[in-house]
Amino acid sequence: MTDQTQSYKEFFLRVTKDFSPHPWQKELAGNPDCGNRLIRIPTGMGKTLGVLTTWLYHRIEQGNQDWPTRLVWCLPMRTLVDQTAREAKLLLESLGMEQHVDVRVLMGGVSEKRWYQSPEKPQILIGTQDMLLSRALNRGYAMGRAAWPRAFGLIHTDTLWVMDEVQLMDVGLTTSAQIQAFWEDYESLLGKPRVTWWMSATLQPEWLHSVETASMLPQLSDNMLTVRREDRFGSQWAAKKPIERFVAAPKDWAQKVIETHSSHTADPQTGRQTLVVLNTVRKARDLFGELEKHYKSDEQRPDLRLVHSRFREADRESWADEFLSRSTLSPDTNRILVATQVVEAGVDISASCLFTELAPWPSLVQRFGRAARYGGNASVIVLDSEDNKKTQPYTPEQLTAAREAVEQISDVSIGSLEDYESKLSPEDLKKLYPFTPLHVLLNEEFNELFDTSIDLSGFDMDVSRFIRQADDSTDVHVFWRDWEGETPDPELQPHRSELCRVSIRDAKDWLSKVTKRKEAVWKWDYLDGSWIKTKADDLSPSSVFLVAPQTGGYSKTKGFTGAPPSKKEPTESVPLQQKPALDDESKSDLADESEATSQVDTWKTIATHCWEAAQVADELCERNDIPANYKRLINLCLRLHDWGKAHPSFANGTYRCEPSRADLAKAPDKAWRKGNAIYNTLSHGPRRGFRHELASCLAVLELLRRIDPTHDALLGRYEVFLSELGEEPETQPGIHETNSVAAELQQLSEQDFNLLLYLIASHHGKVRMSLQASPKDQDFPLDNAQFQGEGMPIRGLRSGDELPPTLVTDADGNDALMPDITFDLSPATLGLSTRYGESWAERTLKLVKSINPFTLGYLEAIVRAADCRASDDSAAPGNLPDKRLVDQPLSIPEHEGTNEEASTKEELQHV
């Protein structure tokens, strides 16, 4: 035994107290290098514990910085998320590591602010494939659009992905392999890893095959982690599970369950527990109803339980303590569990008798693992109707192959299954484990997804086909709550404990009936940050819907039913310990006009806030080992990122303060103008779509043009070309404002300058790959000639707008006065301009190709985290007073609005 495995064994014993690690767990932890792996281990052999302890041992216990900071645990079902999160938290507590590692659950109704605001802290991120893969594709479900890039940047870089129970993931498995293959093809510019472990009791290497993965698949296959034959010992390997096949119509299955439950041999340790696993929620509910009728007046009535994915978390929380764990079993147990696929994985239960509806072979193997899980013997009965017309959610071919396998075996214990499959030919194995994804993510599509702008039709590229290929695609979220007034208040937000997942198809059927009864259904609108009435056909993956409890559709014992209100078992709202509300970061993602992270308890000038943000960025870069060249660029970015707040539309149209100032970056919440008054000034008109980060970016671009118009990032490479076309570069002879910050810009390479522009523009996630006019821009009154600027605004900025001289700081923290700037929007047009050279679209596309989406997204996330943390009143240095305001204290006017604001409202009434 090596020192490494011996040390891991001691670490493992700190968790389990009495049990040594399995040989396969020691083999996994014995490799000091973290690389891509296939893990094929039978159910019940401690896969979750093995992976968790391996990562914790290397990254936390040993402090190995080569192991990723974030462990991203991807699961096919929400119930598995709860189980894994609970196990991870208990493990950290037993090791005393809960202060060093955060466990974050990513699912609808859970704020994600804390995980992507702490990129330097070790974290375990646990979520469904819908939540995690959508974030990996830069289209995070149940998130505001502006937050997508932050999650994208951190969920790829410095991460170990664990794709768990991959036999249930369909196309999501392919997507995970494709993304890892894309990563392998890029040069790692940050020296940080991205690794994937694929894990299942039935994992087949060929499931990962594609053109892109072909180069890495042979090594993965050769090194696949399995239980070696010499290690097959213990009670689990000695268990016996004789199998029989029962062929009958589904209406007769309940009677078979009743008869067998009372007659089969109970386990002397765990009692009599019958588990019935069916393929659909509808079948499970129907059979459960038949059992309830039969045992209604029976004094010997067993404990009847129904388990499926359409329950609220609040109602699932007690399951582990009541019936869904080993601790609930005793020699006196008398229980029947009726369940769906949710018990195929991640659930610590053992049945003395298992009924399973015929399913694809990988699913059957998982279900067999729920019988005699702790050793001993169990009866296994496969329910089969042989009706090839009703095979949903599976195909007839899948069920035919599984039926043939069931007919060939007499025992389904772990050892018997391993022996059976080892004798099959590759062709027969492929029949048992078929997998042909409908959609394969291409590298070009992945790169396109880096752009989070909506297209000209107002839509995004559909990523659901890369996440799940089931007919229902993904689910929506529903919660039941009472509220005061006619319309729900925006502050009324769901808590994760009250959310219920419903398939899009079932939700559509149910909501159509609800709306026909003239009952209101409310949908959360992420863009406007409000609840809006909706119709049954307005459904999209992970949408959140609110209904009143009186609407019905839910039972505490049966989950989502879609049934009308019932007096016998009325739908009730979940009692909450505290009122759930959106945090400031979430609010800032919901509406373009919100600048929630600029609302702090103290006033801050642009120079002070930018300097403080740069200091936070330096610390983040140090703690995340970001290379020096990127660290310097991020520091410069943060020192300039809010320069555009000196624009009159922001300076005069955002805050109410006395005396008036044009150099403020932060202000107390009460100082902010509300509603239509924001970004509305008499001199510039209504600029509701105004984005200060675009102003900052274009100001930097214009400054470089003034001091060095032939810089490689501008027209340096195009002078000869323009001369041949008879064009002359637009320059301003004699204007060469120089200061230490301008000198920093001049020294940047073309790529670094473009990266600087991009990081400044993207630091709120709302101006990124393209410069497009927003709907609010299109409402601008172009016929009013009195307003400053020319043409239609783009994100609230017009050509001809002027930015006054503004203080920022140089690399040493000294004041640097930036010159007045006149804006020009030519970068928004396509093609080469005689003023700036390449367009914005060309610059950003070149960045994606030259730097790669993973690195670009990570740098973007670091910049945003630094800005947010510098804006946080509870964290230094953001809570320090601004030295530039000590002698000039500011106050908020007591009256409603300033004179200019009142004049503006009167002047703009006709607009």
Query: What is the structural class?
Result: alpha/beta
**Strand arrangement in the largest pleated sheet:** 1-6-5-2-4-3
Measured as a percent range, the helix fraction is 25-40%
Coarse morphology: globular
The tally of structural domains comes to 4
| Number of helices, where a helix is a run of at least 4 consecutive DSSP H or I residues | 32
The residue-averaged pLDDT reads 88
Uncertain runs are 579-594, 897-911
Biggest β-sheet description: 6 strands, parallel
Which radius of gyration do the C-alpha atoms yield?
A: 31 Å
Distance between the termini: 80 Å
Oligomeric state of shown chains: single chain
Strand content: 5-15%
Number of strands: 29
Question: Can you give a write-up of this model?
Answer:
By secondary structure, this protein is of the alpha/beta class. The protein has four domains: 3-231, P-loop containing nucleotide triphosphate hydrolases (Rossmann fold); 240-412, 3-Layer(aba) Sandwich (Rossmann fold), CATH 3.40.50; 471-585, no CATH class; 592-904, no CATH class. 35% of the residues lie in helices and 13% in strands. It is built from 32 helices and 29 strands. A six-stranded parallel β-sheet has the order 1-6-5-2-4-3, with helices on both faces. Helix 5 (113-116) links the parallel strand 3 (102-106) and strand 4. Helix 3 (47-61) crosses helix 4, helix 23 packs across helix 31 (853-871) and helix 25 packs antiparallel against helix 28 (750-761). It is globular, with a radius of gyration of 31 Å. This is CRISPR-associated helicase Cas3. In the N-terminal section; belongs to the CRISPR-associated nuclease Cas3-HD family. It comes from Rhodopirellula bahusiensis. Pfam families: Cas3-like_C_2, Cas3_HD, DEAD.
